[in-house]
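Journal club prep, notes for RB
We'll compare a predicted complex against what the paper describes. Inputs for the fe (ii) ion case:
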Amino acid sequence: MDKGYTDLHSHILYETDDGSGSLEETINMIKALADAGFSASCATPHNIPGNDNILLLSKSREKIRIIGETLEQQHIGYTINTGAENYFDASLEIKNPDYFIPLGNSETFLVEIPFIGETSHHIDALHKTGLHCIIAHVERYMDIVQNPDKATVLKQAGFLLQMNFGSLIGVYGADVMKAAHVLLKKGIVDVIATDIHDIHHAGPILKKGMKRLETLLSPVKVNQVLRDNPSGILNRGYATAASESKE
Ligand SMILES: [Fe+2]
């Protein structure tokens, strides 16, 4: 059933990095998303320093066009936006000033930082770029797993925070699950997304994750993290989305 949810983090583009292996798998992933209430996604393949990001974006657009045609033939209404999971490590020099790929036509960037080490080191450097960023799967960084309070610092620095569905049900281990529950309770998570890479994980993550989420958050809050905030980021801009999600 379409609940107007938007998935801001996914690897649904076929034959792209470690995501979907085929067009057929992509279509099945989208069907699983649609069953869970989603009507739109951002395809966010990994963008890493040294990548040809212009080529990545043009290949993404071509694949999104082909996926769109296939969905239309099957009478499935679903919107796919461009995007990327931009890797940022303070110690790596980014030579290309246009390195970061935004989510759709927005001016917001999904950013992944290194899993190990102090998050503050990377976050300070990211802050200096002046970009509007949403931090990917905030609950998965070791530093935050050990001390979830550190996520508040990221939030106070002005970043939006994204959590993965899988973390809610222990896909990344018990410690990450515990951190995810703490962060949800704190009310500092702006967006929950799937980060799905293949069809095998898509179904169980969406079904179990959705059930767990509904036990942890009120229906209003569920709509905020799955519908209002992600679509707000895509359509109304970062500043509006950031201020709305503070309410
Ligand atoms: Fe990802």
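Talking point for the session: The CA atoms of residues 50 and 132 lie 22 Å apart.
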